[in-house]
Amino acid sequence: MNPLLTQLQPYPFERLKKLFAGITPNPAYRPISLGIGEPKHATPALVIEAMHASATAQPSGFAGYPATGGEPALRKACADWMQRRYGVTVNAATEVLPVNGSREALFSFAQTVIDPTRPRPTVVSPNPFYQIYEGAALLAGATPYFAPSDPARNFAVAWDTVPDSVWANTQLLFVCSPGNPTGAVMPLDEWEKLFELSDRHGFVIASDECYSEIYFRDEAPLGGLEAAVKLGRTDFKNLVMFTSLSKRSNVPGIRSGFVAGDAALLKAFLLYRTYHGSAMSPVVQAASVAAWNDEAHVVDNRAQYRAKFAQVTPVLASVLDVALPDASFYLWAAVPDAWRTPELSADEHFARALLAQYNVTVLPGSYLAREANGFNPGAGRIRMALVAETAECLEAAQRIAEFARKRTS
Question: How far apart are CA 220 and CA 197, in angstroms?
Fold first, then answer.
């Protein structure tokens, strides 16, 4: 067995399963889960229709192996969306690569760019973070470094506190904007700082932007390639962005997204993927073209989230330290330290007791972060994914509010 597998941490939902072992949820309430970020809004009809049309077309799209690089029509749809969404021009043939969802691509990209033969290969990521970043680093033979974040500044990453000795060995930097779990969006000056560091030390920036289309400000979140263009950079050297249809179009089950940016990196990534066996089904490609070419369903989806958060956030804010995020579909709430016990952190105890008494599942924030410098930035927080319909999320919020009030009364 690959010995690097022993370094992997249990996934957050495995830890949650263990935390909930032995609990019998209150049967007086129907179960509601805010634990996993799995979109529940209706899949757009145009996606289903395109998939059906492709599956029934003659000659059948199932008769041959699909190209790893995807069909030209899909690459063009992705490039056209980049132009409409960000005002960024990318070459569909060399600067766009379809992938089977951003999760698969984030992991495999690290395997492509990390050189484990160099001394102390390092991968830097935010903290809290999406656990794929850590696993990708470890299995590529690199050491993860978790950059500290500042709770007082909406968990903005304190890049200036990362020592030069760490940056000198860094080969890959993962950023996530809008962030999971905080929903924070990186401003242009933060991108400028990261580009300067990348230029100085030569590391690659992988920008995870899968939540970019669910936002609550009037202005859409800034993207990595967009930031490069705004700052007058003449190319996308050492920069790639990852995006997905899962959240944008409510199709997590079809596993479709794309990567765009540095053509040299994407050429190497395509070579890796040719061996990796990760070509996208023609049926999924057809559905993806339809999704990327349509914006009306995205506007409607965003409106649903905005209406939902407008109703749910005030209910939770009346009892917890929580506010409307910049973007994404999560609420990142602090729970009182009084919930902490000798055996459990405050967020773990809160989540366990909430399930037992009110049959609502939330995810402890400490499961989404790592202790660094004696501090776990997720401890004492819970992540709530408002992915279900508004009525269900509102009912869950009302139960949480009642639960919290009983504790403090």
Answer: 26
Would you state the CATH architecture of domain 45-294?
3-Layer(aba) Sandwich (3.40)
pLDDT at 189: 96
Q: What CATH code would you report for 3-42+297-408?
A: 3.90.1150.10
Read out DSSP for 353-402?
HHHHHH-EE-EEGGGGS--BTTB-TTTTEEEEE--S-HHHHHHHHHHHHH
Q: Is beta strand 122-125 parallel, antiparallel or unpaired with respect to 143-146?
A: parallel
CA distance 214 to 306: 8
pLDDT in tens, 119-172: 999 999 999 999 999 999 999 999 999 998 887 777 889 999 999 999 999 999
What one-character DSSP code corresponds to residue 241?
Answer: E
Task: Tell me whether domains 3-42+297-408 and 45-294 share a fold.
Answer: no
Q: What is d(CA 258, CA 201) in angstroms, rounded to the nearest whole number?
A: 27
pLDDT tens digits along 56-104: 886 666 778 899 999 999 999 999 999 999 999 999 999 999 999 999 9
User: Is 241 within 8 Å of 260 (Cβ atoms)?
Assistant: yes
Longest CA pairwise span in the chain (Å): 68
pLDDT band at 335 (very low <50, low <70, confident <90, very high): very high
User: And the tokens for 140?
Assistant: 């590529």
Q: What pTM did the predictor assign?
A: 0.96
User: Mapping DSSP to helix (H, G, I), strand (E, B) and coil, where does residue 70 land?
Assistant: coil
Cis before residue 12, ω within 30 degrees of 0?
no
- Let me know: does 178 contact 221? Beta carbons within 8 Å: yes
Q: What residue ranges do the domains of the chain occupy?
A: 3-42+297-408, 45-294
Q: pLDDT at position 62, please?
A: 77
Contact 178, 145 (CB under 8 A): no
> Averaged over 320-336, what is the pLDDT?
96
Tokens of residue 53, six digits: 């049309």
- CA neighbor of 96 nearest in space, from 88, 191, 115: 88
Query: What gap in Å lies between CA 70 and CA 233, rounded to an integer?
Result: 28
pLDDT of residue 265: 98
Strand, helix or coil for residue 155: coil
Distance from C-alpha of 213 to C-alpha of 261, rounded to nearest angstrom? 19
